[in-house]
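Quick start: what a row looks like.
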Amino acid sequence: MASLAQLGAKPCLVIGRAGMDLYADPPGTPIETATRFVTALGGSSANIAVALTRAGGRAALLTCVSDDAVGRFCLAQLDAYGIDRSHVSAKGGEARNSLAVVETRLDNCQSVIYRNGAADFEMTVQDVQGVDYSRFSALITTGTVLAAEPSRSAAFRAFDLARAAGLPLIFDVDYRPYSWPSAEEASQVYSRAAALCDVIVGNDVEFGFMAGDFDKGLEKARSLIGQGAQIVVYKMGEMGAITLTAAGEFRTGIFRTATLKPTGAGDAFLGNLVASLSRGTALDQAVLHGSAAAAIVVSRVGCAPAMPTPDELVRFIAFHSGPTTA
């Protein structure tokens, strides 16, 4: 079992996609009537890396981008956020970067995602074997990276190499049905990945999905602790979260806010959870920091540019009425 105490000593390595988000502008505009869009860095793994760096941590990204203008946009954005991209490679041919066309509105929010021939799915075993894992304090990945080959095999090989280097494995379930050939395959692969990881974060639907029964999600989360996971966070939307460890369980509430859109909350949660743990924050407070960051992000336009700084997070918590009763 890798020690989580090493978090923060070195940067975290995040595996998975970086893409371009196009937001219909001004906020509230439906895509079908929009005549103007604003751009931002997107992709769940890139968003987590941004959340981590904005929260005061350090992150590197391991992925592939397309060898074109959109891929170069992603590289420039990674540089702007201070994310190490020395392990981001460009893929030519028909590979294309992930592109999301998104609305900033809460009700009936549409997010149209283009993933045909996704460049990040072109990551190979050779790409992950070229990494010196001793330079990092943890390996973070999302479920998206496991949805197709050769990315899936590459990610599992990275798990092996990171574990051999003594790194804890942190897994955000992040189930996106459109990326998978079948729900059955996704459930099997996610369960395999979760069983290898030290920290697993997901929502009640995702854990229920892995269990094969949406009424047994919490049971599935508890089983992962029995298999050796150190922390499992079972998120329940407005009902807060249940955090499980070998020592027991505790519940936390959420920070209610004026919500603009539903996207980005999970990425903010994980990045700030890891950043807080890296600073030696107690687990219950680290979970609340993740929840507060999620509340901030859904109240702002965009995902990556909406991630809070430590000062913003402190001010938000100080002036908020506090989390709901768990």
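That is the whole record. The chain has ten helices and 13 strands. Residues 283-297 form the longest helix (15 residues).
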